[in-house]
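Request from the bench team (R.T.):
"We need a structural guess for the complex before ordering more 2-acetamido-2-deoxy-beta-D-glucopyranose. Sequence and SMILES attached. Just send the tokens back."

Command: build protein-2-acetamido-2-deoxy-beta-D-glucopyranose structure.
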Amino acid sequence: MIRGPVDEALNSGCHGLAAVHDFRVTTSERSSVMPLDITMLLSLVLLLAGVVSGIQLPFSGKPMIPSPISHDDVKYATGFTLRHIFHHGTEELAKLHMRKDVGPSYRMASGRRSFHISSQLKTVTRMSERDPDFIESYLHYARTKGAVSIDFDWTHEDIMVPDITDRDTLVEFAKITADAYVDNPEGSDWIDVGLPYNETGGFGWDSNGLRGHVFVDETNTTVIIAIKGTSAALFHSDGDTVSNDKINDNLLFSCCCARISYLWSTVCDCYEKSYTCKQSCLEGALYAEDKYYRATLDIYRNTTSLYPNANIWVTGHSLGGAMSALLGRTYGLPTIAFESPGDQLAAQRLHLPFPPIPLNETTIWHIGNTADPIYMGVCNGPTSVCWLGGYAMETQCHAGLECIYDTVNDKRWHISISNHRIRPIIDMMLSYDTTPKCVAPTNCQDCYDWNFV
Ligand SMILES: *[C@@H]1O[C@H](CO)[C@@H](O)[C@H](O)[C@H]1NC(C)=O
Ligand SMILES: *[C@@H]1O[C@H](CO)[C@@H](O)[C@H](O)[C@H]1NC(C)=O
Ligand SMILES: *[C@@H]1O[C@H](CO)[C@@H](O)[C@H](O)[C@H]1NC(C)=O
Ligand SMILES: *[C@@H]1O[C@H](CO)[C@@H](O)[C@H](O)[C@H]1NC(C)=O
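Reply to R.T.: structure attached below.
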């Protein structure tokens, strides 16, 4: 829980016992699937004792309970099937939020029913209080009060995370993010999970907005949310480039509302004068209700309410990759993002919590390749495809580990927007026997020539 001046502001949305509840469910749920009962039970008892009696636990950047089992020894593989699709509108349809439950007979476009993922035990550090009401009230507070230094309570938890050193697992994640599933599969009808929606079909709501495809394992203990923007934009297919994705891209990955020159139409009104931009205006624009980040939070909230005890992972490609990384950062969820543009600036503007651990210990992985100008952050400047398409992709820093396939040197690929697409990436990943080493970026800073006031 947050201590100090923030307490007051958050009291309304914050329930002190939520953290305890959180511990109890995730821990006991895990022990039923893995041979870890004794360790888990021990941590559970100690954690509960500490939390209930109000004793400050000695969080010092090290795991609290030394695990007698080497993390490398505990590996677990499981099959995931698509269970639900969330569709969240944006812009004028921002209130629209629908869910479709997918039947067990559902097959992917490829004819497959399930995805096979290997995972391993890892200690992650995340906020002990992760209830959506609490997190969203923190985000609101941080945004309205500006940069504040907040002293969170962090916990170290042993959870299963995807084994990103396993090539086939990484490929399965890439396939999950790809458009491998049909748009409107058989199953139940779409049901409203947000405000009642009064128009039925035919108004474009099913093709514009943000989607979360929810995959669940056989035991309902691990859930994967795959996030994607749905409009047909420059980077996804040839076609309509004036889209929600473009607005969101320009909001998330530009220095100042895509205000490149007076010739550009801006996506927010924060530009003040030459190389000067209003910070609080930017923060408000990113967090606006009709934009992708808020839609992502709603999809997460609804998913956790369906699977309150589950261990949740997120994934996505491109803009969906960046959204997955922002969601992973918000809630401390293991995340695999493919070919994401630089998301660090957005994470900072949204005041997402960064755990007090070295960056190399994080469980947010940004998979990319050196021939993808979007991932590498070089798709900018007057001659670039992005610029010509009206995309202001100015950022290049990732808030997580970077795992980069060197396709330029290994495969003689040329830097091209076509190497951003997920299909060639999947084939490329399969042509390697191993996965790339993941490293923490050092001293990366975006938009350093701008003043944010
Ligand atoms: C939905 O629209 C119809 C007419 O188009 C209207 O009669 C009805 O009251 C609306 N329902 C809601 C919940 O707004
Ligand atoms: C998992 O959840 C589904 C509902 O989403 C339920 O039908 C099924 O029985 C559950 N399976 C297990 C093993 O709990
Ligand atoms: C689902 O999301 C909507 C916002 O779109 C929210 O109002 C609703 O409370 C959520 N439902 C659950 C069960 O979390
Ligand atoms: C992270 O880096 C530190 C040194 O800065 C090293 O001691 C530690 O083992 C690294 N952790 C991982 C997971 O690579």
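Two things stood out. The radius of gyration is 21 Å. The CA atoms of residues 2 and 151 lie 6 Å apart.
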